Amino acid sequence: MRLIITGGGTGGHLFPGISLAQAMMQTYPGCEVLFIGTERKVDKTALSDLGFATMTIKSRGIKGKSPAAKIMALLHQPAALLQAAGIIRKFKPDLVFGVGGYVTGPVVLAARLMGVTTCIHEQNSIPGLSNRLLGRIVHRIFLSLPGSEKYFPANKTVLSGNPVRSSIVKAAKQMHREKYREPLTLLILGGSQGARRLNSLMLEAVEKCLTGLSPRPNIIHQTGEHDESHVREKYTELGLNARVQAFFMDMAEVYSQADLVVSRAGATTLAELTVFHKPVILVPFPYAADNHQEINGRYLVEAGCGLMFKQSELNGEKLGKAIKRLLTNTKHLAAMAENSGKIAKPEATGTIVSGCMELLKGRLEEDTGKILAF
Hints:
The chain is of the alpha/beta class. It is built from 14 helices and 13 strands. The strands form two sheets. Strands 3-2-1-4-5-6-7 form a seven-stranded parallel sheet, with helices on both faces. Mean pLDDT is about 90; it is low at about 365-374.
Protein backbone atom coordinates (compact mmCIF):
# COMPACT_ATOMS: atom_id res chain seq x y z
CA MET A 1 0.00 0.00 0.00
CA ARG A 2 1.45 3.35 -1.10
CA LEU A 3 -0.33 6.54 -0.07
CA ILE A 4 0.19 10.19 -0.97
CA ILE A 5 -1.43 12.76 1.30
CA THR A 6 -1.47 16.32 0.02
CA GLY A 7 -2.54 19.62 1.51
CA GLY A 8 -1.41 22.24 3.95
CA GLY A 9 -1.03 25.90 4.59
CA THR A 10 -2.35 25.57 8.15
CA GLY A 11 -1.74 22.99 10.84
CA GLY A 12 -5.48 22.39 10.84
CA HIS A 13 -5.31 21.13 7.27
CA LEU A 14 -2.45 18.76 7.94
CA PHE A 15 -3.51 17.20 11.25
CA PRO A 16 -6.32 15.12 9.65
CA GLY A 17 -3.80 13.93 7.07
CA ILE A 18 -1.41 12.94 9.84
CA SER A 19 -4.22 11.03 11.57
CA LEU A 20 -5.03 9.18 8.36
CA ALA A 21 -1.36 8.35 7.70
CA GLN A 22 -0.83 6.98 11.20
CA ALA A 23 -4.00 4.89 11.02
CA MET A 24 -3.10 3.47 7.61
CA MET A 25 0.38 2.51 8.79
CA GLN A 26 -1.01 0.90 11.93
CA THR A 27 -3.77 -0.99 10.10
CA TYR A 28 -1.61 -2.02 7.13
CA PRO A 29 1.99 -2.64 8.23
CA GLY A 30 4.38 -1.80 5.44
CA CYS A 31 2.20 1.02 4.15
CA GLU A 32 4.39 3.77 2.68
CA VAL A 33 3.26 7.38 3.03
CA LEU A 34 4.44 10.50 1.23
CA PHE A 35 3.24 13.99 2.16
CA ILE A 36 3.18 16.63 -0.58
CA GLY A 37 2.75 20.11 0.84
CA THR A 38 3.85 23.70 0.60
CA GLU A 39 7.11 25.30 1.61
CA ARG A 40 5.39 27.26 4.38
CA LYS A 41 6.80 26.97 7.87
CA VAL A 42 3.51 25.76 9.34
CA ASP A 43 3.59 22.65 7.12
CA LYS A 44 7.14 21.81 8.11
CA THR A 45 6.34 22.34 11.80
CA ALA A 46 3.28 20.10 11.71
CA LEU A 47 5.25 17.26 10.07
CA SER A 48 8.51 17.65 11.97
CA ASP A 49 9.74 14.66 13.96
CA LEU A 50 6.95 12.38 12.68
CA GLY A 51 9.19 10.45 10.31
CA PHE A 52 7.12 10.85 7.15
CA ALA A 53 8.70 11.33 3.75
CA THR A 54 7.80 14.82 2.49
CA MET A 55 8.05 16.73 -0.76
CA THR A 56 6.87 20.17 -1.84
CA ILE A 57 5.62 21.69 -5.06
CA LYS A 58 5.53 25.33 -6.05
CA SER A 59 1.88 26.28 -6.10
CA ARG A 60 0.05 29.47 -5.20
CA GLY A 61 -3.38 30.21 -3.81
CA ILE A 62 -6.00 32.06 -5.85
CA LYS A 63 -8.96 32.81 -3.61
CA GLY A 64 -8.87 36.18 -1.87
CA LYS A 65 -5.87 37.43 -3.84
CA SER A 66 -5.52 40.60 -5.92
CA PRO A 67 -6.15 40.33 -9.68
CA ALA A 68 -2.41 40.42 -10.36
CA ALA A 69 -1.73 37.70 -7.77
CA LYS A 70 -4.51 35.55 -9.22
CA ILE A 71 -2.96 35.80 -12.69
CA MET A 72 0.45 34.83 -11.32
CA ALA A 73 -1.08 31.90 -9.43
CA LEU A 74 -2.84 30.64 -12.55
CA LEU A 75 0.36 30.91 -14.56
CA HIS A 76 2.07 28.68 -11.98
CA GLN A 77 -0.54 25.90 -12.21
CA PRO A 78 0.76 24.07 -15.33
CA ALA A 79 4.24 23.82 -13.80
CA ALA A 80 2.76 22.68 -10.47
CA LEU A 81 0.71 20.04 -12.29
CA LEU A 82 3.77 18.69 -14.10
CA GLN A 83 5.79 18.77 -10.89
CA ALA A 84 3.08 16.80 -9.10
CA ALA A 85 2.85 14.32 -11.97
CA GLY A 86 6.58 13.68 -11.77
CA ILE A 87 6.36 12.90 -8.06
CA ILE A 88 3.36 10.63 -8.61
CA ARG A 89 5.05 8.74 -11.45
CA LYS A 90 8.09 8.11 -9.29
CA PHE A 91 6.25 7.17 -6.07
CA LYS A 92 3.53 5.08 -7.79
CA PRO A 93 0.78 5.56 -5.16
CA ASP A 94 -2.28 3.35 -4.84
CA LEU A 95 -4.22 6.30 -3.43
CA VAL A 96 -3.88 10.09 -3.39
CA PHE A 97 -5.78 11.80 -0.58
CA GLY A 98 -6.28 15.58 -0.42
CA VAL A 99 -6.85 17.34 2.90
CA GLY A 100 -7.38 20.89 1.62
CA GLY A 101 -5.36 23.95 0.73
CA TYR A 102 -4.28 25.20 -2.66
CA VAL A 103 -1.48 22.65 -3.05
CA THR A 104 -4.13 19.91 -3.12
CA GLY A 105 -5.44 21.01 -6.52
CA PRO A 106 -2.55 20.17 -8.85
CA VAL A 107 -1.58 17.00 -6.96
CA VAL A 108 -5.06 15.45 -6.91
CA LEU A 109 -5.76 16.55 -10.48
CA ALA A 110 -2.51 15.01 -11.71
CA ALA A 111 -3.30 11.78 -9.89
CA ARG A 112 -6.79 11.60 -11.36
CA LEU A 113 -5.49 12.21 -14.87
CA MET A 114 -2.98 9.39 -14.35
CA GLY A 115 -5.67 6.93 -13.30
CA VAL A 116 -4.85 6.87 -9.57
CA THR A 117 -7.68 6.47 -7.04
CA THR A 118 -8.37 9.84 -5.42
CA CYS A 119 -10.25 11.07 -2.35
CA ILE A 120 -10.55 14.39 -0.59
CA HIS A 121 -11.60 15.44 2.89
CA GLU A 122 -13.50 18.67 3.51
CA GLN A 123 -13.12 19.94 7.05
CA ASN A 124 -15.31 23.01 6.95
CA SER A 125 -18.98 23.72 6.52
CA ILE A 126 -18.19 25.75 3.39
CA PRO A 127 -15.62 24.06 1.12
CA GLY A 128 -12.56 25.85 -0.16
CA LEU A 129 -12.08 26.53 -3.86
CA SER A 130 -9.74 23.58 -4.47
CA ASN A 131 -12.08 21.03 -2.93
CA ARG A 132 -15.14 22.43 -4.70
CA LEU A 133 -13.44 21.94 -8.05
CA LEU A 134 -11.88 18.59 -7.17
CA GLY A 135 -15.21 17.27 -5.91
CA ARG A 136 -16.30 16.90 -9.53
CA ILE A 137 -13.54 14.45 -10.43
CA VAL A 138 -12.45 12.53 -7.32
CA HIS A 139 -13.82 9.11 -6.40
CA ARG A 140 -14.89 9.86 -2.83
CA ILE A 141 -15.44 12.97 -0.65
CA PHE A 142 -15.32 12.70 3.13
CA LEU A 143 -17.05 15.46 5.12
CA SER A 144 -16.62 16.73 8.66
CA LEU A 145 -19.82 18.68 9.16
CA PRO A 146 -23.43 18.19 8.04
CA GLY A 147 -24.53 20.77 5.50
CA SER A 148 -21.39 20.77 3.39
CA GLU A 149 -22.69 17.89 1.28
CA LYS A 150 -24.78 20.33 -0.78
CA TYR A 151 -21.60 21.58 -2.47
CA PHE A 152 -20.69 18.13 -3.85
CA PRO A 153 -22.17 15.31 -5.94
CA ALA A 154 -24.42 13.42 -3.53
CA ASN A 155 -23.32 9.95 -4.62
CA LYS A 156 -19.70 10.66 -3.66
CA THR A 157 -20.04 12.03 -0.11
CA VAL A 158 -19.58 10.34 3.25
CA LEU A 159 -20.18 12.19 6.54
CA SER A 160 -17.13 10.87 8.37
CA GLY A 161 -16.33 13.62 10.82
CA ASN A 162 -12.93 15.26 11.10
CA PRO A 163 -10.00 12.90 11.77
CA VAL A 164 -8.44 13.52 15.17
CA ARG A 165 -4.89 12.51 16.01
CA SER A 166 -4.66 9.13 17.71
CA SER A 167 -2.88 10.66 20.71
CA ILE A 168 -5.85 12.98 21.24
CA VAL A 169 -8.44 10.19 20.97
CA LYS A 170 -6.46 7.93 23.29
CA ALA A 171 -6.01 10.64 25.92
CA ALA A 172 -9.70 11.59 25.75
CA LYS A 173 -10.74 7.98 26.35
CA GLN A 174 -8.41 7.70 29.33
CA MET A 175 -9.47 10.98 30.93
CA HIS A 176 -11.50 10.66 34.10
CA ARG A 177 -14.50 13.00 33.92
CA GLU A 178 -14.62 14.07 37.54
CA LYS A 179 -16.78 16.75 39.07
CA TYR A 180 -15.48 20.28 38.68
CA ARG A 181 -12.91 21.24 41.27
CA GLU A 182 -11.86 24.76 42.13
CA PRO A 183 -9.93 26.56 40.94
CA LEU A 184 -11.28 25.88 37.46
CA THR A 185 -8.98 26.07 34.45
CA LEU A 186 -9.60 28.31 31.46
CA LEU A 187 -7.89 27.44 28.16
CA ILE A 188 -7.43 30.06 25.42
CA LEU A 189 -6.53 28.97 21.89
CA GLY A 190 -5.71 31.68 19.39
CA GLY A 191 -5.03 29.29 16.53
CA SER A 192 -2.53 29.82 13.73
CA GLN A 193 -4.45 32.81 12.38
CA GLY A 194 -5.77 35.91 14.08
CA ALA A 195 -4.41 35.16 17.55
CA ARG A 196 -3.41 38.74 18.30
CA ARG A 197 -6.92 40.20 18.56
CA LEU A 198 -8.15 37.28 20.65
CA ASN A 199 -5.16 37.71 22.96
CA SER A 200 -5.98 41.37 23.56
CA LEU A 201 -9.65 40.59 24.15
CA MET A 202 -8.72 37.95 26.70
CA LEU A 203 -6.35 40.21 28.63
CA GLU A 204 -9.05 42.86 28.83
CA ALA A 205 -11.63 40.25 29.87
CA VAL A 206 -9.41 38.90 32.63
CA GLU A 207 -8.55 42.33 33.99
CA LYS A 208 -12.12 43.60 34.02
CA CYS A 209 -14.08 40.53 35.05
CA LEU A 210 -12.01 37.60 36.30
CA THR A 211 -9.50 39.00 38.78
CA GLY A 212 -12.33 39.43 41.31
CA LEU A 213 -13.32 35.76 41.26
CA SER A 214 -12.52 33.68 44.31
CA PRO A 215 -10.73 31.49 43.77
CA ARG A 216 -9.23 32.92 40.61
CA PRO A 217 -9.17 30.49 37.66
CA ASN A 218 -6.00 28.92 36.41
CA ILE A 219 -5.22 29.97 32.85
CA ILE A 220 -3.56 28.14 29.97
CA HIS A 221 -3.05 30.46 27.02
CA GLN A 222 -1.74 29.62 23.54
CA THR A 223 -0.82 33.01 22.14
CA GLY A 224 0.68 32.38 18.72
CA GLU A 225 4.25 33.38 17.97
CA HIS A 226 4.01 37.17 18.42
CA ASP A 227 2.43 37.86 21.83
CA GLU A 228 3.85 35.24 24.17
CA SER A 229 6.06 37.54 26.28
CA HIS A 230 3.53 40.36 26.50
CA VAL A 231 0.67 38.07 27.55
CA ARG A 232 2.79 36.28 30.15
CA GLU A 233 3.91 39.59 31.67
CA LYS A 234 0.33 40.85 31.85
CA TYR A 235 -0.91 37.77 33.70
CA THR A 236 1.99 38.10 36.13
CA GLU A 237 1.08 41.74 36.68
CA LEU A 238 -2.52 40.72 37.42
CA GLY A 239 -1.40 38.05 39.87
CA LEU A 240 -2.90 35.12 37.98
CA ASN A 241 -1.58 31.58 37.76
CA ALA A 242 -1.07 31.39 33.99
CA ARG A 243 0.78 28.97 31.74
CA VAL A 244 1.58 30.82 28.52
CA GLN A 245 3.22 29.47 25.37
CA ALA A 246 3.27 30.43 21.73
CA PHE A 247 2.18 26.90 20.81
CA PHE A 248 1.62 23.73 22.81
CA MET A 249 2.94 20.52 21.29
CA ASP A 250 1.09 18.16 23.66
CA MET A 251 -2.48 19.29 23.04
CA ALA A 252 -3.93 16.20 24.69
CA GLU A 253 -2.41 17.23 28.01
CA VAL A 254 -3.64 20.81 27.59
CA TYR A 255 -7.19 19.76 26.69
CA SER A 256 -7.35 17.40 29.66
CA GLN A 257 -6.65 20.27 32.05
CA ALA A 258 -9.33 22.63 30.71
CA ASP A 259 -12.78 23.16 32.20
CA LEU A 260 -13.77 25.86 29.69
CA VAL A 261 -12.17 26.80 26.36
CA VAL A 262 -12.11 30.12 24.51
CA SER A 263 -11.13 29.49 20.91
CA ARG A 264 -11.32 30.31 17.25
CA ALA A 265 -13.55 27.94 15.26
CA GLY A 266 -11.19 26.03 13.01
CA ALA A 267 -12.53 22.59 12.11
CA THR A 268 -9.69 20.53 13.58
CA THR A 269 -9.76 22.36 16.90
CA LEU A 270 -13.54 21.93 17.16
CA ALA A 271 -13.25 18.22 16.42
CA GLU A 272 -10.61 17.79 19.12
CA LEU A 273 -12.61 19.77 21.66
CA THR A 274 -15.73 17.67 21.13
CA VAL A 275 -13.72 14.45 21.49
CA PHE A 276 -12.67 15.80 24.91
CA HIS A 277 -16.26 16.87 25.73
CA LYS A 278 -15.22 20.49 26.27
CA PRO A 279 -17.62 23.45 26.65
CA VAL A 280 -16.52 26.36 24.48
CA ILE A 281 -16.80 30.07 23.87
CA LEU A 282 -16.06 30.63 20.19
CA VAL A 283 -14.79 33.81 18.56
CA PRO A 284 -14.52 32.87 14.86
CA PHE A 285 -11.67 34.32 12.83
CA PRO A 286 -13.56 36.97 10.81
CA TYR A 287 -11.30 36.83 7.77
CA ALA A 288 -11.55 33.08 7.16
CA ALA A 289 -12.51 32.21 3.58
CA ASP A 290 -16.29 32.39 3.05
CA ASN A 291 -16.64 33.09 6.78
CA HIS A 292 -16.45 29.32 7.27
CA GLN A 293 -15.38 29.52 10.92
CA GLU A 294 -18.63 31.18 11.92
CA ILE A 295 -20.60 28.52 10.05
CA ASN A 296 -18.49 25.81 11.72
CA GLY A 297 -19.22 27.34 15.10
CA ARG A 298 -22.98 27.45 14.58
CA TYR A 299 -23.05 23.67 14.51
CA LEU A 300 -21.63 23.50 18.04
CA VAL A 301 -23.80 26.32 19.35
CA GLU A 302 -26.97 24.72 17.96
CA ALA A 303 -25.93 21.45 19.60
CA GLY A 304 -25.69 23.20 22.98
CA CYS A 305 -21.93 22.89 23.33
CA GLY A 306 -21.16 26.55 23.89
CA LEU A 307 -21.50 30.21 23.02
CA MET A 308 -20.28 32.18 20.03
CA PHE A 309 -19.50 35.88 19.52
CA LYS A 310 -18.60 37.77 16.38
CA GLN A 311 -15.30 39.53 16.89
CA SER A 312 -16.72 42.78 15.47
CA GLU A 313 -19.41 42.81 18.16
CA LEU A 314 -17.15 41.83 21.05
CA ASN A 315 -15.10 43.69 23.62
CA GLY A 316 -13.15 42.44 26.59
CA GLU A 317 -15.85 43.22 29.12
CA LYS A 318 -18.54 41.34 27.19
CA LEU A 319 -16.27 38.34 26.78
CA GLY A 320 -15.24 38.48 30.43
CA LYS A 321 -18.84 38.49 31.65
CA ALA A 322 -19.64 35.45 29.51
CA ILE A 323 -16.63 33.57 30.87
CA LYS A 324 -17.51 34.55 34.42
CA ARG A 325 -21.11 33.34 34.03
CA LEU A 326 -19.94 29.92 32.94
CA LEU A 327 -17.10 29.53 35.44
CA THR A 328 -19.52 30.29 38.25
CA ASN A 329 -22.19 27.86 36.99
CA THR A 330 -20.64 24.40 36.84
CA LYS A 331 -24.07 22.81 36.28
CA HIS A 332 -24.30 24.70 32.98
CA LEU A 333 -20.70 23.80 32.14
CA ALA A 334 -21.46 20.13 32.73
CA ALA A 335 -24.51 20.23 30.44
CA MET A 336 -22.48 21.88 27.68
CA ALA A 337 -19.72 19.31 28.11
CA GLU A 338 -22.23 16.47 27.78
CA ASN A 339 -23.64 17.98 24.59
CA SER A 340 -20.15 18.39 23.19
CA GLY A 341 -19.48 14.69 23.66
CA LYS A 342 -22.72 13.78 21.88
CA ILE A 343 -21.57 15.28 18.56
CA ALA A 344 -17.98 14.04 18.79
CA LYS A 345 -16.78 11.62 16.11
CA PRO A 346 -13.68 9.92 17.49
CA GLU A 347 -14.22 7.17 14.91
CA ALA A 348 -13.74 9.58 11.97
CA THR A 349 -10.30 8.30 11.01
CA GLY A 350 -11.49 4.70 10.98
CA THR A 351 -14.45 5.63 8.80
CA ILE A 352 -12.13 7.23 6.26
CA VAL A 353 -9.66 4.34 6.29
CA SER A 354 -12.50 1.88 5.65
CA GLY A 355 -13.90 4.02 2.87
CA CYS A 356 -10.54 4.34 1.16
CA MET A 357 -9.82 0.63 1.35
CA GLU A 358 -13.27 -0.17 -0.04
CA LEU A 359 -12.41 1.91 -3.08
CA LEU A 360 -9.03 0.27 -3.49
CA LYS A 361 -10.46 -3.22 -3.24
CA GLY A 362 -12.78 -2.45 -6.13
CA ARG A 363 -16.04 -2.74 -4.20
CA LEU A 364 -17.24 0.47 -5.77
CA GLU A 365 -17.60 0.66 -9.53
CA GLU A 366 -14.72 2.45 -11.23
CA ASP A 367 -16.33 4.73 -13.80
CA THR A 368 -13.22 5.96 -15.55
CA GLY A 369 -9.72 4.75 -16.14
CA LYS A 370 -6.55 6.48 -16.99
CA ILE A 371 -7.37 9.70 -18.84
CA LEU A 372 -3.91 10.95 -19.62
CA ALA A 373 -0.41 9.52 -19.30
CA PHE A 374 2.46 11.88 -18.57
